[in-house]
Amino acid sequence: MNRPIVSALSVVVGFLSVVAAVAFAADDLGLPDLTRTYDAAVADFDGDGITDVALIRHQNRKLTSDGPDGIFMSSAPTFWFPQFQDRHGCGAGDFDGDGDPDLYCTKGAGKGSKSKANELWINQGDGTFNDEAASRGVVDPHGRGRFVEVGDFDGDANLDIYVTNKPRTDGEVSRNTLFLNDGTATFMRSPWKTEGAGCPNLFTTPSEHRLLMTCGDELHLYEIGDNDRIEEWIPDPLGSIKTASVTTNGVWIVAANDDIVVGYKWNGNAYVEMWRHDPAHNVKEVSVNGNRAYVLTVGEGCTNLRLPPKSSRDVILGVETADASVLNQNFHGCADHAIPFRSGWLILNGDGKTRGPLELIEISP
Ligand SMILES: [Ca+2]
Ligand SMILES: [Ca+2]
Ligand SMILES: [Ca+2]
Ligand SMILES: [Ca+2]
Q1: Which of 13, 22, 15, 23 is nearest to 323 (CA)?
Q2: What's the angle, vertex CA 51, arms to CA 47 and CA 53, rounded to 5?
Q3: 142 close to 189: Cβ distance less than 8 angstroms
Q4: Nearest ligand to the C-alpha of residue 185?
Q5: How far is the CA of 186 from the centre of ligand 3 (A)?
Q6: What is the 150 CA–ligand 3 centroid distance (Å)?
Q7: What is the pLDDT of residue 285?
Q8: What does DSSP say about strands 39-43 and 144-151: parallel, antiparallel, or unpaired?
């Protein structure tokens, strides 16, 4: 098993007065250690009560392979996806309503000049998955796929799929698309539009009917009504917002630009700024899980594995109080995404062409 040059993962990380957070090596849980990463989706895919991880590594023939993308399950053997598919963001949900989580994955489109087929992996309940995207209407052949958000956006109790797409280079339409589930895991494109193509990268879903996304330095919170009706709130602009996340009840939004993290609270009419926190490093992402927000910084940026470690200074904030716990991690690799996982987060550090360590942060009450 490959180990990072500096073993920062298997130790308790320092600090703190507010929460107890512990970092684990991902390979302790059967996940790869140093690897490239693009996205991950978490769910209990094998139904044993333990959260599993679908790890997506932007696998591509032109880039060094770290093994195929796959679903790392707690009891069943890992399920591997077909190799070299330029797979990007994935989202898990029980789309066919049979009680087990399925998985939808976007793909790129040959730098915006080719067609491709996104994948809808339907869980067979025996540790295997079948790609049924074509028969269920979610291939999105011209979409230059980037990220996925799963939620019941139209309130009919069936899980829908929101896909962000980067603009194409050949004039074909490639914009963000909401696929609505008809209740049989067959999907139709909604006419509903957000800030369309060109804003593919950062967004999250606070609750049903809603979509929060950052787009061109602005923060958009959409409330999705009848398909063509859009209501939108934009909190007092922080300026150059690049990342945001929200509590599941929609009461709190935590947003950040490069320098400042801000907490907004819904007062019945609008989101009102309640606190600010300076994390002292460039913020890459904010991810809310329960009443805690993980602020992922890039510090000195992506570091080469052959060089001495440089510090980053990630922070866990109380969403309602902004009480802060600093994590000095000294990770190699590129800070990538913080994905809510069990009581903490799965941290991806292998963005781009640089391999980095996977990390698990667990929070004790
Ligand atoms: Ca499991
Ligand atoms: Ca299912
Ligand atoms: Ca199933
Ligand atoms: Ca729905």
Answers
A1: 15
A2: 105
A3: no
A4: 2
A5: 14
A6: 17
A7: 87
A8: unpaired
Please state, in angstroms and rounded to a whole number, the distance separating the CA atoms of residues 336 and 145: 17
- Ligand 2 centroid from CA 137, angstroms: 16
Q: Distance, CA 157 to ligand 4 centroid (Å)?
A: 5
Terminal Cα distance for the chain, rounded: 32
Local structure of residue 335 (DSSP, 8 states): -
- Write out the DSSP string of 16-52: -SS-EEEEEEGGGGT--SEE--SEEEEE-TTSSSS-E
Instruction: Note the ligand closest to the C-alpha atom of 183.
Output: 4
Measured in Å, residue 100 CA sits from the centre of ligand 2 at: 4
- Write out pLDDT tens, residues 186-225: 999 988 776 554 454 445 555 556 777 777 677 777 777 6
**Residues linked to residue 38 through DSSP beta bridges, in sequence order:** none
Dump the DSSP string for 56-67: E----TTS---S
Could you tell me the strand order of the sheet in which 177-181 lies?
144-151, 160-166, 177-181, 187-189
What is the 76 CA–ligand 1 centroid distance (Å)? 8
Residue in this structure with the two tokens 């049924």, named with its chain if needed: 132
The reply to whether the predicted model has a pTM over 0.85 is yes
What is the Å distance from ligand 2's center to 123 Cα? Answer: 5
The pocket of ion ligand 4, defined by CB under 5 A, consists of 152, 154, 156, 158, 160
| Cβ < 5 A residues, ion ligand 1 | 44, 46, 48, 50, 52, 74
d(CA 235, CA 261): 13
Q: Spell out the residues 6+ positions from residue 329 whose beta carbon is closer than 8 angstroms to its own.
A: 8, 13, 23, 311, 312, 313, 314, 359
Encode pLDDT of 294-353 as tens digits.
Answer: 988 875 556 565 665 565 678 899 999 999 888 766 666 777 789 999 889 998 888 767
Distance of alpha carbon 142 from alpha carbon 356, whole angstroms = 31
Burial class for 188, CB neighbours closer than 10 Å (0-12, 13-18, 19+):
middle
Cα 187 to ligand 4 centre (Å): 10
